[in-house]
Amino acid sequence: MEHIPILKMGNLLLVTIQVDMHDRLAMTLQDDLTTRIVKDHASGVLIDISALDIVDSFIGRMISNTAAMARILDARTVLVGMQPAVAITLVELGLTLHGVQTALNVEKGISLLQRNAT
Amino acid sequence: MSMATTGLLAKTLNEHQATLLEVWLGGMLSRMVRRDKVAEGEIRQQATRFLPEVAATLERSQNYEFNSPAWADVRQTLAEISMGRLRQGYSSTDTAAFIFSLKEPLFELVRQTMAHEPDTITTVMTEAGTLFDRMGLFTIEEYQRGRESVIMRQQQELLELSTPVVQLWKDVLALPLIGTLDSARTQVVMENLLQKIIETGASIAIIDITGVPTVDTLVAQHLLKTVAAARLMGADCIISGIRPQIAQTIVHLGVNLEDVTTKATLADAFLVALKRVGANVTRAEQTF
Q1: Which of A44, A72, B96, B268 has CB atoms 3.0–4.6 Å from B263's, for a disulfide?
Q2: Domain STAS spans what residues (chain A) (predicted)?
Q3: Count of structural domains within chain A
C-alpha cells in the first residue's frame, strides 16, 4: 500500500507531501501520523505542501483534522510552504484552516515550533 | 482577364516608375502638414521601396488577391509603414493617404499609356482600384491594431504600476494601495503580494489603505481574503491607514476585522512589524 514518508528530526516529525493526495492516501497519512506522534513522543509536526499545486476542500479538511488530532496528542502542527495559488483557492473556498499554524518554509516552521516549546 | 491586366499594370509600373514616384511624392508632400527634411526623406524611402515591390508582386503572382500568400511581402512593408507612422503620431487618415494618394497619378498614367485601348483602361482601373482600396484599408487596420496593442499594454502596466509591493525591512513588506479597488485590481494586488512574500520570505505584510477613498463590502471582503491567504502561507498582515470615515463604514457594514491587526498609520504598523521580527527601535541622542 502507498504511504507518505514521515521523517523524524529530533522531537519533530516532518511530512513532505509530493504526490497528488487522494482520499485513501489522506486517511492512511492520518493513521500513520497519529501512530508516529505517540510512538516517537513528538512535540511538533511539520506538514510541507510546497510541492502541491492543487489542494481541494477534502485535503484542506484533512489537514485541519490532523492538526486537531495532533493537538489532542500534545503535538503542535505547522503547515508550511503553501503556494500563492493554493492559498487563494482555499480562501475562495472559504477554508481558512482555523487553528492550524502556518509558516513560509520548513526552516521558519521549525523555528516557530521551537519558539513555542520554550 | 486579370491574368493579362496584371502583366500590363506591372509593365506600366516598371516602365514609368521614376515618373510615377515623383508625381506621387509631390502629391503626398504637398498635402503634408508637418514638413521637415527627415519626414520627407523617410516618405521617399518608403515609397521607393513600396512601388517596385508592388510591380514585382503583380508580375509574379498575376493576381489582385491582396490577401493571398503572394502578397505577403507587400503586406509586411505596409504593416511596417503603418507602425512607423503610428509611433510618429500621424492620424489614421494620414497613414492611409500613403496609398490613396497613389491612385490618382497611377490612373493618370494608365490613361496615358493605354490611350489606344479604352476597354483595357476600364478593366485595369477597376481592378487596380479595388486592389489599392484594399491596401489602404489594410494600412488603417494595421494602424488600429497597433493602437489597440498599445492601449492593452498600457492598461496592463497601469495595473501593475498601481500595486507596488515594497520591502521596508528584512521580513517586512508594505503594499500601499492607492485609488479605488475593483475585483480585477484586487486580484492583481493579491497575487503580487503573495508572490512577493514567497520571493522575499517576508513574515509580515503591511497593507496601507490611506490612498483608498472608499471601502465597500466587496473591497473589505477582498482585503480579508488577502489577509487570510497570506496567513495560510505563513505570513501575517497588518492593515493600516484606515480613515475615520472608513472605520465607520466598516462597522456599519458589519465587516469583522477583529482577527486582523489594524493600525492608524503606516508608521505605527511599521513599528509593530519591526517588534515582531525582533528588531529594536530606539531614538538616538540628537547632537547639534
Answers
A1: B268
A2: 2-113
A3: 1
